[in-house]
Amino acid sequence: MIIKVTPDEAVQEFISYLVNEKGYSENTISNYLHDINDFSAFIKTEKMAKDILHISMRHPENYVSYMTNQKYKSTSIRRHISSLSSFYSFCVKNDLFKENYFKDLEKLPKIPKHLPKVINESEIVMLFDACDLENKLGYRNFCILGCLYGCGLRVSELCNMQIRDIDFSERIIRVRGGKGGKDRDVIMYEGLGEMLKHYISVFRPEILYNSKDTENRYVFLNKNGTTLSRVGVRKILEKLVKDAGETFHISPHMLRHSFATALLNNGMDLRTVQELLGHENLSTTQIYTHVSIEKMREDYTKAHPRAIKPSKNKS
Question: Which of the residues are catalytic?
Answer without folding.
Answer: 154, 179, 253, 256, 279, 288
